[in-house]
Design goal:
With 328 residues, this protein is mainly β. Helix content is 11%, strand content 48%. β4 (142-147) and β5 form a beta hairpin. It is globular, with a radius of gyration of 20 Å.
Length: 328
């Protein structure tokens, strides 16, 4: 199995290296569609920078996250074992010269899934730690959080529902735009259901300063953001839930050819629960890596995956596919 995957990886790498490098166009890879911490409790809050796509259009993205996190101290127990899937529909459009707005409608389902064997092979192949995966049954769903012996989260059956709808707007007047800057605002509405872990039950508001830079003759794209989110009270008795979370990201993209862009993004946020277990209170650090394939003038396919750099602060791995349609 390992040799087969090694051969496949080498073939893909050789194929990418052999792709002809032609025009030096603007890097079009972006990680705005669906990239957020999908750990079941963290995902209830708006902890991702509200960055908007550079082009008007529609995006459909599917994200599948695998979880295996366990921590116990006295009467406080956290066990997150299962998979989370999110189907996002994102619409982005311009309002005049300075404003852009976006609406994200997510559909969320938590399930037993079937990724555990693949994740185990992935960890063995790359020599990564397997955490508690050797201690828990494969392909089961158990999202449990006991606080002082009382159940806060207890989800053991597949659930699905509309998630929390997200609205975002960016403002880039000429004074900011000439420096590659924009201000982005986000609002997460309580359209999901805390009982099924598809929404927090509260309204979150976030704001970030976003910087994006690519010289006209360069294949490299650099961007970053830094900001804050005000978190509304969740319907779950999480304990000392934080009112404020700090968040941001840095990213780099490289135009390999007119039809292929590769990139990576480091995203972080502070924990939503001040006195909770480490996976809920630690700063989350997540690395997203992937590429964008231009199918034609209007259609594009993004393929990315996430890893939890600060272990257990985000899912073990997230696979994401996003198909976008540009509107002129």
């Amino acid at each position: 199995m390992q040799n087969r995957w090694h051969r496949v990886g080498c073939a893909l790498l050789l194929g990418l290296c052999a792709t002809p490098s032609q025009a030096q166009g603007e890097a079009t890879l972006d990680f705005t569609a669906g990239v957020r911490n999908l750990s079941p409790i963290a995902a209830l809050f708006a902890l991702e920078p509200p960055i908007l796509r550079e082009q008007d259009g529609l995006v459909v993205s599917l994200s599948t996250a695998s979880h295996a996190v366990g921590e116990s101290e006295g009467n406080n127990v956290l066990l997150i074992d299962g998979e989370t899937n999110v189907l996002d529909l994102v619409a982005t459009f311009s309002l005049g010269a300075d404003w852009r707005v976006a609406v994200t409608v997510p559909y969320v389902w938590h399930a037993t899934g079937s990724l555990d064997p693949l994740i185990d092979d992935w960890h063995r192949f790359f020599g990564l730690p397997d955490g508690i995966r050797d201690e828990i049954p494969r392909d089961e769903l158990q999202f449990e959080y006991l606080r002082d012996g009382l159940p806060v989260v207890d989800l053991t059956r597949n659930s699905r529902d509309l998630g929390d709808v997200r609205l975002a707007a960016s403002w880039a007047p000429e004074a900011l735009a000439r420096h590659g800057l924009s201000l982005a605002l986000g609002v997460k509405l309580p359209t999901g259901d805390a009982e099924t872990l598809t929404g927090s039950g509260g309204t979150d508001v976030s704001a970030v300063l976003h910087w994006r830079r690519q010289a006209p003759t360069s294949r490299w794209l650099l961007e970053g953001s830094a900001g804050v989110a005000a978190l509304g009270d969740a319907d779950l008795a999480l304990g000392d839930q934080t009112d404020t979370a700090w968040l941001g990201h840095v990213a780099v993209g490289y135009t390999v050819s007119p039809k292929l862009v590769l990139g990576t993004r480091l995203q972080l946020h502070t924990g939503p629960v001040a006195d909770g277990p480490d996976p809920l209170s630690d700063t989350s650090v997540m690395l997203t890596t992937g590429g964008s394939i231009t199918l034609n003038d209007d259609w594009r396919l993004d393929i990315t995956f996430d890893e939890d750099i600060n272990v257990d602060s985000a899912p073990d791995i997230v696979f994401r596919f996003a198909l976008s349609r540009r509107f002129d």
